[in-house]
């Protein structure tokens, strides 16, 4: 018997019925029965559990080092400030409680923001999203954190590529139709071009820049997060991730909630041996809305020690223009699965507190502009420090 999806009573183990009971097996991801379950997750809440992924071998080390960083016994406030995010024009580094905003309200969490480790473009170039490339900031007292993060991100990239292939199968579109949006094949060549740009003694003209820019700028981010243990109940406010696929490893403490189609919040319990996967708004857009970007939030339940989580965000290439795939090019199975949204249609659409498509780009816009809007909205202080005078 293949250990594929369950959509039955898995939630009974978690203390109550939940539509969030899909567990897909990574080793069997492309089997027909798992693809069928993946389709259900795509048109449903946009959230599922993934078991036995390559991240399982990486997560314990990264959780241990993350906890060490956030422990007041280990890291002094001065050391945290030495890598604060506001010091990085690439939006990388530590930020304290309340500094990130969601839905215009402060989030009760502290975190280290990380991204693809790459050379930086020279300062002052347009478009602004070129500033999203650059080095990370790591704490000097935990030298092994750098390797743990980069190796985790490498595995997460592998999981993303495999999941993207499975989604292509579930939609019934040709191989590469979605994977090409990620632009990963252009990574090394891109780095070389950026290094060459950075070594120039004079800034390039617009025409020279267009010529020198890599065709792809693959992009990914992750966070090491420690939520508050009391006070402001908004750990992170309701939102839909703005990227492609999010891979979330959590500890056992409760707090994560997903919004169902009626606008009710459902607790997402921890499952051992699994990470959570949710779809972002660029997959929603490229699938013409067939795939759902899940609306979710983190609620603070008072606890002796705050919840820790490791979200990884895969994204399209910053240079990708997200072109919606017409319904007519998808398989009959995919379109049939979408019909299961009957209940939602009867209600006149999903009830939600987040505006639909708030991070969808326009028909001609490169994804980088969307990524930039998303970050400057979440991190107003860093934006103000580096870019406030020149505008977005
Ligand atoms: Fe999220």
TrEMBL record:
What InterPro entries does the database record attribute to this sequence?
DIOX_N (IPR026992), IPNS-like_FE2OG_OXY (IPR044861), IPNS-like_sf (IPR027443), Oxoglu/Fe-dep_dioxygenase_dom (IPR005123)
Q: Write out the entry's keywords from A to Z.
A: Iron, Metal-binding, Oxidoreductase
**Name of this protein:** Clavaminate synthase-like protein
**Residue span, Fe2OG dioxygenase domain:** 218-316
Q: Which organism is it from?
A: Jaminaea rosea
Region of interest called Disordered, as start-end residue ranges on this chain: 331-362
Q: Which family does it belong to?
A: Belongs to the iron/ascorbate-dependent oxidoreductase family.
Q: Which GO terms describe its molecular function?
A: metal ion binding; oxidoreductase activity
Question: In this record, what's one Pfam family?
Answer: DIOX_N
Give the superkingdom in one word.
Eukaryota
């Amino acid at each position: 018997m293949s250990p594929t999806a369950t959509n039955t009573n898995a939630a009974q183990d978690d203390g109550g019925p939940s539509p969030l009971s899909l567990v897909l097996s990574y080793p069997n991801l492309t089997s027909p029965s798992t693809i069928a379950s993946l389709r259900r997750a795509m048109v449903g809440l946009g959230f599922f559990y993934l078991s036995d992924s390559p991240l399982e071998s990486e997560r314990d080390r990264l959780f241990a080092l993350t906890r060490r960083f956030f422990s007041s016994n280990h890291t002094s406030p001065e050391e945290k400030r030495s890598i604060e995010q506001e010091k990085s024009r690439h939006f990388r580094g530590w930020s304290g409680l309340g500094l990130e905003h969601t839905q215009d309200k402060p989030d009760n969490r502290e975190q280290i923001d990380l991204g693809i480790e790459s050379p930086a473009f020279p300062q002052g170039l347009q478009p602004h999203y070129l500033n999203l490339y650059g080095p990370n900031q790591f704490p000097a007292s935990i030298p092994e954190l750098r390797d743990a993060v980069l190796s985790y991100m490498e595995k997460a990239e592998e999981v993303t590529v495999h999941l993207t292939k499975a989604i292509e199968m579930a939609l019934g579109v040709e191989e590469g139709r979605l994977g090409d949006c990620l632009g990963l094949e252009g990574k090394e060549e891109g780095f070389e071009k950026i290094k060459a740009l950075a070594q120039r003694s004079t800034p390039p003209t617009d025409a020279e820049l267009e010529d020198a820019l890599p065709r792809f700028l693959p992009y990914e981010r992750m966070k090491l997060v420690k939520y508050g243990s009391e006070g402001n109940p908004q750990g992170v406010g309701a939102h839909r991730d703005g990227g492609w696929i999010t891979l979330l490893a959590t500890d056992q403490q409760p707090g994560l909630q997903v919004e169902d189609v009626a606008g009710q919040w459902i607790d997402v319990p921890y499952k051992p041996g699994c990470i959570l996967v949710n779809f972002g708004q660029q997959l929603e857009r490229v699938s013409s809305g067939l795939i759902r970007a899940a609306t979710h939030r983190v609620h603070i339940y008072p606890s002796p020690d705050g919840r820790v989580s490791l979200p990884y965000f895969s994204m399209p290439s910053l240079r990708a223009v997200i072109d919606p795939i017409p319904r007519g090019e998808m398989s009959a199975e995919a379109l049939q699965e979408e019909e299961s949204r009957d209940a939602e249609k009867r209600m006149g659409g999903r009830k939600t507190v987040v505006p639909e498509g708030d991070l969808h780009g326009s028909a001609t816009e490169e994804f980088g502009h969307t990524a930039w809007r998303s970050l400057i909205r979440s991190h107003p202080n860093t934006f103000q420090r580096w870019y406030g005078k020149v505008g977005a």
